[in-house]
Design the sequence.
């Protein structure tokens, strides 16, 4: 079972400039899988908030329309080449097939770009005026697959482990405020994908507005004292959507705004029996 | 049981290195050098007005001629610009090349210390009459701009000869007049995310500051 909450808050810099919150995010459960998406509209793009909104909507629709069976049974050839003692394990494997996952995320990205083009036409603007990053994950009780274009963060804690793990290295240029967007001509090439046979107790996806307080830049290690209270909050909150004050207050706190002026999105989830 | 609040990791602040490249040659004597001194003070004030820029901007001053580093990179609270006097020739080409090297070294220091940084800025404030070979420097500036490795701002004092300056400044950001220049608008840039520089990526959301950058007509 999954329990989750996702909230966004506008950054002080955007507030001062009279800009809307350009982050967008969504989360839902389908076929026992938890699906999460975070899109961070580029501060430098004219209609970034429309771009990020379109990406989240497209992703949620796309996932809803497709089945999530990424795994396939091993072929006879694979079984013949398997050590006899491992045979039952291989046969029962539910590990997603890399190729299926790649095709799925490539199709999703293409669909996202297609819809962005339509939005651009509707809003009489260029595609790049809708520039946004995109991070999508699908978590099953036995695996997690995810894609990322840009610099959002995805952190998990595996069942039975103490430490938190960052799944993608942030995609950066040389400079701190430069990243890649889905509207870039090379978006598909820039896309990073992970396919992991892991059971996650805790998952956190966040926009880069939270990066500087949650990750240690010198080695990109997630900072446990940042994540563990968030996890504890979810464990103790039966209906987080109704009891969201903790997250909302945190995202709007002066303490946080003193450290980041960007929009902030936090998607956190736990699995429980 | 009450849940504690997330604690924050202590990361070094991102840095934006800025070189003020100041023409203190003999031709600047009188009103131009006064205007230049005032411009540097205004630049400092503009940074202090912006909380984010105050934390992130690091300033170095190079004067010419002769070319010398009168202030190595410091954050704004430690930045106390001296008053400059006009003397000597105008080795602008050499000064520009010196500044570009200075920035490369600074970036290396950032990288070694795990500090993230923004695209560096160079402000050249001058009356625009170089006495040395400036063509190579102009080429380096334009290449660096085209490769999005830095932002070069050519700023002219009143009555400057802008002919050469226009050939040094990148075409997308022609020289501006120092008088009435709004530095504050530039710092907005420190808060906006930009598309990563990559060759052939023509669909970048925007090119750069300037916000309200005035051109000389």
Sequence:
């Amino acid at each position: 079972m999954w329990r989750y909450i996702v909230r966004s808050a506008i950054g002080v810099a955007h507030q001062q400039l009279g800009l809307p919150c350009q982050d967008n995010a969504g989360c839902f459960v389908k076929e026992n899988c938890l699906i999460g998406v975070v899109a961070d509209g580029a501060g430098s793009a004219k209609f970034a908030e429309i771009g990020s909104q379109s990406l989240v909507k497209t992703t949620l629709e796309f996932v809803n329309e497709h089945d999530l069976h990424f795994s396939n049974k091993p072929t006879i050839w694979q079984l013949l080449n398997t050590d006899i003692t491992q045979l039952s394990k291989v046969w029962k494997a539910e590990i997603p097939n890399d190729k299926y996952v790649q095709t799925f995320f490539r199709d999703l990205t293409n669909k996202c770009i297609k819809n962005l083009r339509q939005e651009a036409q509707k809003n009489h603007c260029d595609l790049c005026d809708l520039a946004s990053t995109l991070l999508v994950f699908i978590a099953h009780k036995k695996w997690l697959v995810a894609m990322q274009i840009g610099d959002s963060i995805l952190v998990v804690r595996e069942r039975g482990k103490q430490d938190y793990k960052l799944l993608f290295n942030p995609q950066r240029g040389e400079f701190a405020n430069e990243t890649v967007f889905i509207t870039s001509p090379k978006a598909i090439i820039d896309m990073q994908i992970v396919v992991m046979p892991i059971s996650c107790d805790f998952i956190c996806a966040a926009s880069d507005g939270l990066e500087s307080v949650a990750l240690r830049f010198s080695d990109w290690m997630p900072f446990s004292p940042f994540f563990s209270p968030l996890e504890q909050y979810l464990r103790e909150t039966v209906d987080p959507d109704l009891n969201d004050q903790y997250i909302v207050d945190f995202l709007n706190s002066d303490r946080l705004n003193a450290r980041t002026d960007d929009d902030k999105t936090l998607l956190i989830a736990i699995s429980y029996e | 049981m009450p849940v504690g609040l997330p604690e924050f990791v202590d990361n070094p602040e991102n840095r934006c290195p800025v070189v003020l490249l100041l023409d203190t040659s003999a031709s600047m004597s009188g009103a131009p050098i006064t205007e230049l001194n005032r411009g540097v003070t205004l630049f400092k004030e503009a940074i202090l007005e912006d909380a984010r820029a105050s934390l992130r901007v690091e300033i170095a001053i190079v004067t010419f001629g002769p070319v010398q580093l009168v202030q190595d990179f410091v954050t704004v609270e430690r930045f106390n610009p001296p008053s400059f006097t006009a003397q000597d020739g105008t080795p602008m080409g050499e000064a520009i090349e010196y500044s570009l090297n200075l920035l490369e070294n600074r970036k290396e220091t950032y990288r070694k210390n795990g500090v993230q940084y923004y695209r560096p800025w160079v402000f050249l404030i001058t009356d625009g009459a170089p006495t040395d070979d400036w063509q190579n420097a102009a080429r380096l500036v334009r290449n660096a701009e085209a490769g999005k490795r830095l932002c070069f701002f050519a700023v002219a004092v009143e009555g400057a000869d802008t002919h050469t300056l226009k050939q040094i400044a990148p075409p997308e950001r022609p020289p501006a007049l120092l008088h009435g220049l709004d530095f504050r608008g530039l710092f907005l840039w420190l808060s906006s995310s930009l598309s990563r520089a990559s060759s052939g990526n023509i669909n970048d959301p925007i090119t750069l500051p300037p916000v309200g950058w005035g051109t000389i007509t």
